[in-house]
Automatic annotation (TrEMBL), chain A:
The protein's required cofactors: AMP
Organism: Oceanobacillus caeni
Pfam families reported in the protein's UniProt record: ETF
Annotated Electron transfer flavoprotein alpha/beta-subunit N-terminal domain residues: 21-211
Name this polypeptide is given: Electron transfer flavoprotein subunit beta
Length: 257, 325
């Protein structure tokens, strides 16, 4: 099976966020594999181990993204591809990303593509379905279970807490939800091996893409932090009085009752 | 001719979801003079649903009735909506940022070669240009975004843009469009319900959520009682779900549901970043926790430091008094 994983390097949103001049300060921040993409890497490895084939991890980014690709290789992926847009693209959006990936997949034989259902930084959740649509293959988002039998794929999908049991067929794109699996940590031998695994670097020219063809359709004009919340009122006194005060505040001050 | 805005409505348990009415209100914010067209796709009983869209502000409505639209799949609904888009050539498209909205909108946007701004919580205008505000970085920051090319295609987060008042004196045309839905490669064989009937967490006005401090599945019982008194929906932190006190379908957080109720009562929840990402934009937050140092107090409007098993029964009594007064 030819299995591909779409991976994004993201800002670790557990970090403190600093905004200056309408952009998020990245100096000194931690970067990680988008947590939902980790489920995708893990599932790809499991499916390969069961059905044979090869796992290729693909990302769009700059040289910094090599670190996250190496981590995926250390987890057990076979090959990695970095589509480096640093010199060609100032800005892009999900349209841009999907178009680039379409070009990348043009000459590939694909059985299964896995991606995270959303990236924790920009949180658009668009790239997976967009790519599937451009490639003309079906997709199922937010999956929590995947089993493949020949060309038939049985899936459980999280739908706002309920579970849909879905049948589809290869080739297919899925986006992964928490609960699908427990991503493994790279082992030391895995890390050693990963250094020797192939990591191909491509630029837009290699994919015959003209920047104008992938020009973003949306633009971020400002980024700001939420208004600093005033410290809340921690009530005092006898518990019973606190409860009375709380209900009165909710009714008369907050006016939510 | 005025500009057309297509609102793709969504049904749940045979009724239009509130977020679809909110999408109609959003449509009017984007193009105040535009014509709002409500679209509802299902396998049955569409007339009444379409009528509701008109009561909530749509100028007219389109229905697509087809047996293949019984359960949502991106393929069947994609074909239905695209046929309508082709017929109407709308100048903007809006739908809810729900499970279906998240699944369907990128497909449509890709097909239409358009941009898509997902999960908008507010709309401003800058001259003629609509500006959309959406949370990023797990809700720790916000961005203002505009469409630079193509038609605006937006999904809106439930509970953030108020729906218009229902007005059953409104009237408008309702048309059915026949669509030939075919070549389906994905089918829904079964839906296993894990959530309770009724209001979805993401659309709830009041939420009572429990965390590890609730200590057991039994410990959630008083929370359900409190929720009943308040007409609230019960949610949980990841910690409570991981510990098996409740089902993952209740989980609120970065993984799980993102909620914006008017009132959020956090019970025995410490306030990990993962949880805050799902609820910190709630309008009023109440925290009840034994630990005065718990992080949740930093974002709560009102806090009570105390044992939840003492506090909740008292609260239930007190809320009952308010309810009758």
């Amino acid at each position: 099976m030819n299995i591909y994983v779409l991976l994004k390097r993201t800002f670790d949103t557990e970090e403190k966020i600093v905004v200056s001049n309408g952009v998020i300060e990245e100096d000194g921040a931690e970067f990680i594999i988008n947590p939902y993409d980790e489920y995708a890497v893990e599932e790809a490895i499991k499916q390969r181990d069961e059905h044979g084939g090869e796992v290729t991890v693909v990302t769009i980014g700059d040289e910094e993204s090599e670190k996250q690709l190496r981590t995926a290789l250390a987890m057990g992926a076979d090959k990695a591809v970095l589509i480096n847009t640093e010199e060609d693209l100032e800005e892009g959006d999900q349209f841009t990303t999907a178009k680039i990936l379409e070009a990348f997949f043009e000459d590939k034989e694909v059985d299964l593509i896995l991606a995270g259902n959303v990236a924790i930084d920009e949180a658009s959740g668009q790239v997976g379905p967009r790519v599937a649509e451009l490639l003309g293959i079906p997709y199922v988002t937010t999956i929590t279970k995947l089993s493949i039998d020949g060309k038939t794929v049985n899936i459980e999908k999280d739908v706002e807490g309920d579970v849909e049991v879905i049948e589809s067929s290869l080739p297919l794109l899925v986006t992964c939800q928490q609960g699908l699996n427990e991503p493994r940590y790279p082992s030391l031998p895995g890390i050693m091996k990963a250094k020797k695994k192939p990591l191909e670097e491509l630029e837009l020219d290699d994919l015959d893409i003209d920047e104008d063809d992938v020009e973003a359709k949306t633009k971020t004009i400002d980024i700001f932090l939420p208004a600093e919340k005033e410290a809340g009122k921690v009530l005092e006194g006898e518990l019973e009085d606190q409860v009375k005060e709380l209900v009165s505040l909710l009714k008369n001050e907050a006016k939510v009752l | 001719m005025s500009e057309k805005i297509l609102v793709i409505a969504e049904t749940k348990e045979g009724e239009i979801r509130n977020v679809s009415f909110e999408a109609i209100a959003a449509a009017k914010k984007i193009k105040p003079d535009g014509e709002v067209i409500g679209l509802v796709c299902a396998d049955d009983d569409l007339e009444n649903l379409a009528q509701e869209l008109i009561y909530y502000g749509a100028d007219r409505a389109i229905t697509v009735k087809n047996d293949n639209l019984k359960s949502y799949t991106s393929e069947a609904f994609g074909q239905a909506v695209l046929a309508v888009v082709k017929q109407e050539s709308p100048d903007a498209i809006i739908m809810g940022h729900t499970s279906i909205g998240k699944d369907l909108s990128p497909k449509l946007a890709s097909k239409l070669e358009s941009g898509l701004i997902s999960d908008a919580i507010d709309i401003e205008t800058d001259g003629d240009q609509p500006v959309f505000i959406r949370p990023i970085y797990s809700g720790k920051a916000f961005e203002k975004k505009v469409i630079t090319s193509g038609i605006p295609f937006i999904t809106i987060r439930p509970n953030n843009i108020a729906a218009l008042d229902r007005d059953d004196s409104r009237s408008g045309n309702i048309n059915n469009v026949d669509v030939d839905i075919k070549d389906l490669r994905t089918i829904v064989k079964e839906v296993v319900r894990k959530t309770s009937e009724g209001v979805d967490l993401s659309e709830a006005k009041v939420i009572v959520a429990g965390g590890r401090g609730v200590k057991s599945a039994d410990g959630f019982k008083p929370l359900y009682e409190l929720a009943e008194v308040l007409g609230a929906v019960v949610g949980a932190s990841r910690g409570a779900c991981d510990a098996d006190y409740c089902d993952y379908s209740l989980q609120i957080g970065q993984t799980g549901k993102v909620v914006t109720p008017d009132l959020y009562i956090a019970v025995g929840i410490s306030g990990a970043i993962q949880h805050l990402a799902g609820m910190s934009n709630s309008k009023v937050i109440v925290a009840i926790n034994k630990d005065p140092e718990a992080n949740i107090f930093n974002i709560a409007d009102y806090g009570i430091v105390g044992d939840l098993f003492e506090v909740i029964p008292m609260l239930i009594e007190e809320f009952k008094k308010v309810a009758v007064s």
